[in-house]
Amino acid sequence: MKQRLIALSVAASLGALPAAPALAQARVSDGVVRIGVLTDLSGTYSDLSGQGSVVATKMAVEDFIAADKPAFKIEVLSADHQNKGDIASNKAREWFEKDGVDMVTDLVTTSTALAVMKIAKEKNRIAIVNGAASTRITNEDCNDVSVHYTYDTYALANGTGRAVVKQGGKSWFFITADYAFGHSLEKDTSDVVKAAGGSVLGSVRHPFPGNDFSSFLLNAQSSGAQVIGLANAGNDTINSIKQAAEFGITPKQTLAGLLMFITDIHSLGLKTAQNMYLTEGFYWDLNEQTRAWSKRFFDRHKRMPTMVQAGQYSSTMHYLKAVKATGSDDTAVVMARMKKTPINDFFATKGQIRDDGRMVHDMYLLQVKKPAESKYPWDYYNVRATIPGNEAFQPLSASRCPLIRK
């Protein structure tokens, strides 16, 4: 297992602040705020999250130190959870108990997010989820120390599912990753399809992660459904799309990638992915702010950021600003400040963390460009619609979170 520790000393960076009085005034335990990036550094989600999420976190810390000049030190740790809940929970427990970590973040894969959220609650530390998608995070399994920041399956279904039905894709068959994320994405999209007047003809579930999707694709083909909904992500989605093309399933049936990232489009190429709809919470080429940050990220990581990596920067910055504003790393104090303070940055405009831990912000319905439409590297999307946050995410009135009083 990989673990990396980077100590970023404000005193060293600024060379001017008297350490002891400033730290005492800050009331930060032991004068250090420690952030643990727990992610997939070697598996199917390493491209959309992984080392890029570590890079984004470091950028946030460096920018925070330069702009806010905090009177405390910041340390960043990183580890590979291998997309396994037991490894993730054991590492989080070790970080909390032995290393004094205050906040664990990224947590790509729902199983790892749910496992770490339980440990965070037990140890009274903060968990900020950027990589995982299941709405269970802010429903049945919600707690008062966790934030679901970047996206979820409800928002994905609301965007892509609704758009494909509107385009005439009325009958659906799902190929679903057989764990909590896939189940959640299939259910949420099925609900949207049926509400929009469509129908679901069936589904099949594949092991996670998977390599050979031939039998699942043949089941989808024989269903006669107009749309094959891919309720998976990362390499599973990429391999599903490639194998569908090899079997001649497309263009006779339409594929709907229900969770896709710009790194997936980059791997597939525009010729293969053209015209597909997808929903994201961030696109690097959206405006001047997104372009400026993304080009800085590209200089360090040599790839444009996914929404997970952009959300990782934004959420880390939001957390650090709350620590400075309160002068404390106490979990309850910092969480209260984070929920009270709107998020206004390149990632989210007027974003807000609700009492169930859901960060509400605009989402974007995107369509992949044809090769001839792309004018420069990573110019992959046409923005078809902006989905306001209060429409994109599940309303509190429908919440199953025990923290929400109805």
From TrEMBL:
This is ABC transporter substrate-binding protein. It holds the Pfam family Peripla_BP_6. It comes from the Bacteria. Gene3D superfamilies: 3.40.50.2300. Belongs to the leucine-binding protein family. Residues 1-24 form the signal peptide. Keywords: Signal. Transmembrane segments: none annotated. Residues 33-369 form the Leucine-binding protein domain. InterPro entries: BCAA_transport (IPR051010), Leu-bd (IPR028081), Peripla_BP_I (IPR028082).
